[in-house]
Amino acid sequence: MASPNDFLPLSPVSLHVLLALAMNDMHGYAIMQAVRLQSGERYQLGPGTLYDSLARLLTQGLVKEAEAPEGETDSRRRYYQLTAIGRKVLDAELSRLEEILSLAKASRTRPRERRA
Q1: How far apart are CA 87 and CA 18, in angstroms?
Q2: Closest CA to 65 of 103, 21, 96
Q3: Coil, helix or strand for 100?
Q4: Three-class secondary structure of residue 42 per DSSP
Q5: Helices 12-23 + 84-109 axis angle, to 10
């Protein structure tokens, strides 16, 4: 069985999609809106980019199709959810990014060495 670290580093698109699905099961358009909001409107996915990413995440087993919520009237909508390994991969990626950020912050606060 694959380790979560085997999937790292995630592409920015994959990271944003997994973050969106960590909140709720969602259909494609809702994922695009969640990514736009979670990025402060700095990152917007187009449908082609989103569905290519979802296809890859489905193949990797990080995401799976979910049941439509009760009351859903549009049978064309496909809902997606994070799998258990998808959640572990997301957690591993967030830890990796936190470590990089900590190192970057530490290097900015350290006095620079003077060259002779």
Answers
A1: 8
A2: 21
A3: helix
A4: coil
A5: 120
| Sheet arrangement for strand 26-27 | 26-27, 79-82, 63-66
pLDDT, residue 116, reads: 64
Q: Please indicate, yes or no, if residue 116 is contained in any of the structural domains.
A: no
pLDDT tens for each residue of 17-75:
999 999 999 999 999 999 999 999 999 999 999 999 999 999 999 999 999 999 888 88
Q: What is the CATH number of the domain that holds 25?
A: 1.10.10.10
CA distance 15 to 28: 15
E strands within the chain?
A: 26-27, 63-66, 79-82
- pTM to 2 decimal places: 0.88
Q: Report which of 70, 28, 87, 23 is spatially closest to residue 52, judged by C-alpha positions.
A: 28
